[in-house]
Design goal:
The chain has eight helices and six strands. With 224 residues, it is an alpha/beta fold. The chain folds into two domains: 73 residues, NADH-quinone oxidoreductase subunit E (Arc Repressor Mutant, subunit A, Orthogonal Bundle); 89 residues, Glutaredoxin, CATH 3.40.30. It has a six-stranded mixed sheet with strand order 2-3-1-4-5-6, covered by helices on one side. The C terminus is likely disordered. The protein binds FE2/S2 (inorganic) cluster. FE2/S2 (inorganic) cluster (FES) binds next to α5. The site of FE2/S2 (inorganic) cluster (FES) has 12 residues, from α5.
Length: 224
């Protein structure tokens, strides 16, 4: 279990879901068949994190009680996934993927740009609380690598320059367009189509002409 997780000094003594989130939690638990309510542990932890901004041990204990789970089982889930923040994070939580696809496609330059703009290293939060920088494993958007997640948004096809532009805009309170930063549509090939280039119409036109059907004989005329 991580050192951060054990840091008593940052742990609140209690947690309670808000009225609205308590209803949302009940609705999530009700989705699972009787006897399988534990399957709701991840969405409930996410709900607690969205309410608190991070996931305290008190919140995990509340989730454990709601689902009839030993607290250690909940801690195991929370400490396994990087999407759960086990300590407070800044207003912007900037997570950069440095896994293989992103690394090969320029993640080191994305990291360099982020560190320059934010002025912090991985695992650190700015002194003004504006942002936290984290290194994460695959964000599930490898086709558009390199990728950075800020909050719930993904910024894809990043370069040193576009990373700087996105983060500078976010720090200024702006909302730069999410998704590909090169204008690529979805996960289409970055340099244009490589297969199936022919349009359907052209393809049909290039097919060998079919022999014309023999004209029907006019009434009253003999055919050879
Ligand atoms: S390797 Fe970076 S998104 Fe998958």
């Amino acid at each position: 279990m991580s050192e951060t997780f054990l840091a008593e000094s940052i742990q609140p003594t209690a947690f309670a879901f808000s009225e609205e989130n308590a209803k949302a939690a009940e609705a999530v638990v009700a989705k699972y068949p009787k006897g399988h309510q534990r399957s709701a542990v991840m969405p409930l932890l996410d709900l607690a994190q969205r309410q608190e901004g991070w996931l305290s041990r008190a919140a995990m204990d509340v989730v454990a009680r709601m689902l009839g789970m030993p607290p250690i089982k909940v801690y195991e889930v929370a400490t396994f996934y990087t999407m759960y923040n086990l300590r407070p994070v800044g207003r912007l939580h900037v997570q950069i993927c440095t896994n293989i696809s992103c690394w090969l496609r320029g993640a080191p330059e994305v990291v360099r740009a982020a560190k320059e703009v934010l002025g912090v290293e991985f695992g650190e939060t700015r002194s003004d609380g504006a942002a936290t920088l984290s290194e994460v494993e695959c964000l599930g958007a490898c086709a558009n690598a390199p990728v950075m997640q800020v909050g719930d948004d993904l910024y894809e096809d990043l370069t040193y320059e576009s990373t700087k532009a996105v983060l500078t805009a976010l720090l200024a309170g702006e909302k730069p367009p999410v998704g590909s930063q090169t204008g690529r549509r979805g996960a289409c090939p970055c340099c244009g189509a490589t297969t199936l280039k022919d349009k359907a119409g052209d393809h049909v036109a290039k097919e060998p002409a079919k022999p014309k059907a023999k004209a029907a004989a006019k009434p009253g005329k003999e055919t050879a």
